[in-house]
From TrEMBL:
Major localization listed first in the record, in broad terms: other
Keyword Transport among record annotations: yes
Protein family membership: Belongs to the bacterial solute-binding protein 5 family.
BP GO annotations: peptide transport
Top-level taxon of origin: Bacteria
Domain Solute-binding protein family: 77-441
Keyword vocabulary terms for this entry: Signal, Transport
Name under which the protein is recorded: Peptide-binding protein
Annotated Pfam families: SBP_bac_5 (PF00496)
């Protein structure tokens, strides 16, 4: 997504325990349903879903419901507040039947009118930084009685169920959330697993299990306190001091490695690891003379050593990425590895020589200093080292704070720049479509009609996403051929928790949003 600071987890989860023989499954008696305190560096920017396309989703998932959701282990949308299906053969009419008896915490019914109100207000308000852009394919919302909602799309869009499953599409009480402006009283009225008892901006959110909740979640604790930290160092210290029970966002690679080490201060802690789907990549502005020649971009791709980058900078807390579609997402390939193989400066020199380039190519790499974590500067230093070690490039590095950096690439000022992508939903479309086309998310026009006018429209007609793998593989081959985008690595996700906490391995959904209801205190060993 354009400005989210959250990650995404794959369906298959691997756990690492720092306690020999320590189980991750808790009991279900009264003791196991006590209060949990969780720390994060990812605080909400707003409490109104109509205004947020960012880390606010973390809170929304726990206090609101969506029509569809991603239960643990599922990478396709499943029923939450409704059971939905396409009713036509080209994925343009989507019908949802609401659960009976669902109510908001205010006591008002969650009915078809509330769903239409919730979706329509997103587009009406069209808040800056809000999620209205996700609804580009939607024409209108129709209600039929109290429990039926029909979404009519302007064009085929088989990814629409994934969009409805994002926390951006949280269903709100019409009596509490105005149709044409954002809610301003600081309250939250939802129908999710938890009710928000209190909220102190930048400090904490107090959540209590919702006694009237009707949905897929099985709530395994009585209440959750979410504490917001400015710095991860303070959060880790709070975990060690038993002021919090778990962390779910913000650990640095250095902290993860340190927590995994066998040392006395870690004996009462555990770390759960899972594969993420946040990616980092380089963008080449083909209008800039320094990278306008395909051979230059190919030579960069031929020289870069991703395993060395991940090892030196991220200490194994990330994985090399050879496709814009990451591991864990349907349609993932290793297209760049298949084409270029291992790093080979000799082959890169041949590519440049064949294009008539005999002198070292001077390049300027731009990156943001304050958006993707403390490792970004070190990452670009390593990229520079690798390229210059080949004797084929001379690289200048330029770093700017996010706002300045964003303004620069949006004006087309940077020949090569680094970006990260935190996907909205676990579908390969969301890793290709945003980056291709005249008006793409990178403000660097990349016109490829084969992708935008043929392959993507074809896939969007098919609701069975497993049936369009071939089209996404073809799209990735085109990306490799052009080298306008160069994938570098995908992240891993980590939850650090007290030995007393179970459920960490189930707590992240495929959008990497924390499902607080999965956490519980262990009652036996």
């Amino acid at each position: 997504m354009f400005n989210r600071t959250s990650l995404q987890v794959a369906a298959a989860l691997a756990s690492i325990s720092l306690l020999a023989g320590c189980g991750l499954v808790g009991g279900d008696d009264a003791e196991g349903k006590s209060k949990i305190t969780v720390g994060t560096t990812s605080a909400p920017t707003t409490l109104d879903p109509a205004a947020a396309w960012d880390n606010s989703w973390e809170l929304y998932r726990n206090v609101f419901q969506t029509l569809l959701s991603f239960p643990t282990g599922s990478t396709t949308p499943q029923p939450d507040a409704a059971d939905c299906t396409f009713t036509d053969s080209v994925s343009q009419v989507y019908r949802c039947e609401l659960r009976e008896g669902v109510t908001f915490s205010s006591g008002a019914p969650l009915d078809a009118r509330a769903v239409k109100h919730s979706i329509d207000r997103i587009r009406t308000i069209d808040a800056q930084g809000g999620p209205a852009g996700l609804l580009g394919s939607l024409d209108r919302v129709e209600t039929k009685g109290d429990r039926t909602v029909v979404f009519h799309l302007r064009k085929s869009d088989a990814t629409f169920p994934f969009i409805l499953a994002t926390p951006a599409m949280s269903i709100v009480d019409p009596a509490k959330y105005p149709a044409d402006k954002l809610r301003e009283d600081g309250g939250v009225t939802g129908s999710g697993p938890y009710v928000m008892d209190s909220y102190a901006e930048g400090d904490r959110a107090e959540l209590a299990a919702n006694p009237t909740y009707k949905g897929f979640a099985q709530i395994k604790n009585d209440a959750v306190t979410i504490r917001y930290f400015q710095e991860s160092e303070a959060m880790v210290q709070a975990l060690r001091d038993k002021q919090i029970d778990a962390t779910y966002r913000g650990l640095t690679s250095e902290e993860v490695v340190e927590l995994q080490e066998s040392r006395p201060e870690n004996e009462s802690l555990q770390v759960v690891e899972s594969t993420g789907a946040d990616i980092r990549y380089l963008v080449f502005n083909a209008k800039d003379p320094s990278v306008s020649k395909l051979a230059v971009r190919q030579a960069v791709a031929q020289v870069l050593d991703r395993p060395a980058l991940v090892s030196k900078v991220y200490q194994g807390t990330a994985e090399p990425l050879y496709s814009m579609v990451p591991k864990g997402i349907a349609g993932h390939t290793t297209a760049f590895l298949d084409t270029y193989g291992k790093p080979d400066p000799g082959k890169a020199a041949e590519l440049l020589s064949d294009a008539g380039i005999t002198e070292p190519v001077e390049l300027t790499f731009w990156y943001t200093t304050d958006r993707y974590g403390s490792g970004t500067a070190a990452e670009f230093k390593e990229l520079k080292r690798q390229l210059e070690a080949s004797k084929l490039f001379k690289v200048t590095l330029q770093g700017k704070p996010w706002k300045e950096f964003q303004g620069g690439y949006q004006k087309g000022s940077y020949p090569v720049f680094g970006r990260g992508w935190f996907p909205d939903f676990p579908d390969p479309d969301n890793f290709i479509a945003p980056f291709v086309g005249k008006d793409n998310a990178l403000s660097t026009p990349y016109v490829r009609p084969e992708i935008t006018d043929d392959l993507l429209p074809r896939t969007r007609k098919v609701s069975d996403r497993s049936a369009v793998t071939k089209e996404f593989e073809e799209a990735q081959e085109i990306l490799v051929k052009d080298v306008r985008l160069l994938p570098l690595w995908q992240g891993k996700l980590y939850i650090a928790a007290s030995e007393e906490i179970a459920g960490g391995e189930r707590a992240l959904d495929p959008q990497t949003v924390m499902q607080m209801w999965e956490l519980q205190r262990k009652t036996s060993w």
